[in-house]
Amino acid sequence: MAESKDFINWMSKLPEHLHTVPLNQLAIPGSHNSFSYDLDTTSEIGPDKADIRPFISMFGDMGKSVMKEWSVTQYLTFRQQLEHGVRYFDLRVASRKDKEGIFFLHSLYGMPVASGLDEIKSFLDEHPKEIVILDFNHLFDMTKNHHEKLLDLILKTFESKMCPHLDMDSVNLSMMWEQGLQVIVFYHNDVIKGNMMFWPNTMIKAPWANTTNVQDLITFLESNYKSSKTTDMFVVTQGVLTPGAGTIMAHLNSSLHNVLAEKVAPRVVLWLKEKQTGVHGINICMIDFVEKANFIPNVLKLNK
Questions:
Q1: Which one of the listed residues 17, 19, 32, 251 is annotated catalytic?
Q2: Which of 91, 94, 130, 292 shows a CA-CA span of 20 to 30 A to 28?
Q3: How much is the pLDDT for 245?
Q4: Rg of the Cα trace of the chain?
Q5: What are phi and psi of 41, to 5 degrees?
Q6: pLDDT tens-digit profile of 223-264?
Q7: Cα-Cα-Cα-Cα dihedral of 82, 86, 90, 96, to 10°?
């Protein structure tokens, strides 16, 4: 799927009556493990997979190569995802014993967080009416000092673009455009208590099916859609299948993309087509490999 001029500025092109609708009542495309296009097989196995680290180590470099095939959930870079219309990023980070700084992480370490944030800021500078939601929802091996350094990095990168934690009713495109705000940052750790520039995890929910079965996932999504009430928080629909060790062992020469993502994307998109936005509707929806099955255009159609 090539870069789409239709979606690079989709927020600025929404009809006027949606400019004052709270952001949690718009349909927003998101990506799962957004940074995972860049994972380093020379790094050690990350703390998110500490339980299987000894097993992977037995296989050496081959074990890491297998882990990478099952940990990459996006092929597009941050910039490419933004150009295609993604506005929600699912972020997992950790410190490293062998290097300074904070890094993205999904089984293996990825790029420094600073590099990813710079890429996102560059896009926002060029597209002043586009707004992104950064969800730092898994934070591993982080001391108080690590947290402080990461929060400082986020603040310094986005500065006046950051939207403080506000009442959900007041957070809409019109208000954010007027104030020059472009970034909402969720940070799932109590270290942000009292810091109004970051949004707490109580303001977002993302039910996770934790299954490799497509029909079980669709049943789970339908159940959550019917019971979802999004008046006071953001809600993420996770249209993803999650491999267990058994799935990986049965497909050592394949990948998450080929075994799971290929089959689930069309089914999630088909399910989405019957849905709507609004108080009880779809808000953020994310999948693996966002370019698949016309996912992004179908999410954005829900805003029409």
A1: 32
A2: 94
A3: 87
A4: 19
A5: -75, -10
A6: 999 987 768 999 999 999 999 989 999 999 999 999 999 999
A7: -20
Question: Which structure tokens are listed for 13?
Answer: 């092109």
- Answer yes or no: 147 catalytic: no
pTM: 0.97
The residue type at 171: V
Residue ranges for the chain with pLDDT beneath 50: 1-3
Q: What is the pLDDT of residues 95-134, one digit of tens each?
A: 999 999 999 999 999 999 999 999 999 999 999 999 999 9
- Please tell me the predicted confidence (pLDDT) of residue 4: 60
- Whether the CB-CB separation of 36 and 76 falls below 8 Å is answered with no
DSSP 45: B
Known active-site residue 251:
no
Joined tokens for residue 15: 């009809």
Cα Dmax for the chain = 58
118 in helix, strand or coil? Answer: helix
Neighbours of 291 (CB within 10 A): 19
From the candidates 19, 84, 106, 165, which is the catalytic residue? Answer: 106
What are the φ/ψ torsions at residue 106 (nearest 5 degrees)? -150, 90
Per the CB < 8 A criterion, the answer to whether 214 and 241 are in contact is yes
DSSP assigned state of 258? I
